[in-house]
Automatic annotation (TrEMBL):
This is ceramidase. It comes from Paramecium tetraurelia. Transmembrane segments: none annotated. Its EC number is 3.5.1.23. Keywords: Signal. GO terms for molecular function: hydrolase activity, acting on carbon-nitrogen (but not peptide) bonds; N-acylsphingosine amidohydrolase activity. Residues 1-16 form the signal peptide. The keyword Kinase does not apply.
Amino acid sequence: MHQTLLLFQLFTIISCYSYLPQLEIDLNAPPKQRWMKAVQTVLELHGYQNSFGSVFAFHNQHSFHILNKDDYDTIAYFLRKNFPEHALELEGVVEALNRPEITFEYMAGWAYFHEIAHVTNQFQECTGVLLSAGDQVIHGRNMDQAPGQGRNLVLHLFIKKDGKYIGEVVDWYWFKGGFITAQKYNVASLEENWRIDKRLTKQSVMLFIQSGLPSLTQSFREVLTNDKLNTYEKVVQYLETHEVGCGLYYIVSGSSKDQGTIITRGPQETIPSLKLNTASGITYLVQTNYDHWEVDPEEDPRRTVAEDLLQKMKINLKNEFGIYAVMNTFPVHNEGTFVTVIMNTKYNRFTTLGQEAITFFDDE
C-alpha cells in the first residue's frame, strides 16, 4: 500500500513537468553553425509562433519599444566590431530562423536584452537558494520570465570545448549566445537574477555597448570557457569585479563546504557579497530580485517564504530533495516559472525540471 502511494505521488510529480530537449553545443564548431541545431530543434517541436514568434512579439512591445532603427544599427555595428565571433553566431541564428523580419540588427539588440530591458524595469522574478549540507552546497534555481511560450525555448545544453565537456547549461537565452544558468564541472554553479535599476537610461546602455563591453549573458560563458577561471574563488572574484551594464545578482556555489556566495552588482556600485558560513550560523542564503537589506515587498514574499521553509527544514531534508520542495512551493514557484534547476558542483549533478505554468494546478 505504501509503495503504491509512493509511486502514485512520484508519477503525479513527474506529470507536472515538461521535457527539456538535450543538445550538445561544440564551441569549436564554426561560429555560424553552433546554434543552428538548437534553433531547428525548437522550431520542429513547437513551431515559430508558439516559440520565438510569441517571445519576440512580447518583448518588442515590452522591452525593445525604446529602440529605434538607428539604435539597432549602432548596436549591430559595435557588436560586429568588438565581438566578431559572437556576431557570426547570431548570423547563424538569423539564418536558421529564416524570417525576413528577423535581421542581424534585431538579433544584436537581443544580445543586449538584459541591459535594454532594465530601462523599463518590467521583469523582476527569479529565485536562487544556497544551502550548506555537510561538506557540499546545494544550489536551487527558479528561472521566471514572460511570455509563457518562452518555456518552449528552454533547452538543456552540454557545452563542449577542445574535445571535452566543460559544463551544462539550462536556459532560454541561449539563442543570443549567452547564459544565465550554468555549471562548470568541478568548479562552480552559476545563476543570474534580475536586479531593479531605476537609474539606468537608454543613453547609458548605448554608451555601455559602444564602449566595447560584453552583454550580461556573456559573463557565464566567459566563466565556462576561460581555463584560468578554474576555481570557485577565481570565479567569484571575476564576477565581483568585471564591469556590468545593469543591475544584477550573481548566485554562485562551489564544490566544497560553505562555498556559496551572493553577489550584488550595478554599474555604479560596489556592494559586499553575502557568503555561507556555517561556523557563524549562516547555513543558507536566498536571493530573489530585491536587495537583501530591504524587506520583501508585501506583494512578492518569495524570499521570506523560502527563508521560512529553510529555517524549519529538518536535518533529513537538507539535501537536493529538500531544496526541490522549497523551489516548488508557491510563490517561489509561480505563474512565471519556466524551469527549476537543482545543482550540486561537488558531484557535478545538474537536475533540470521544465515547469508548466502554475495555473496548471488551478481550478480555472
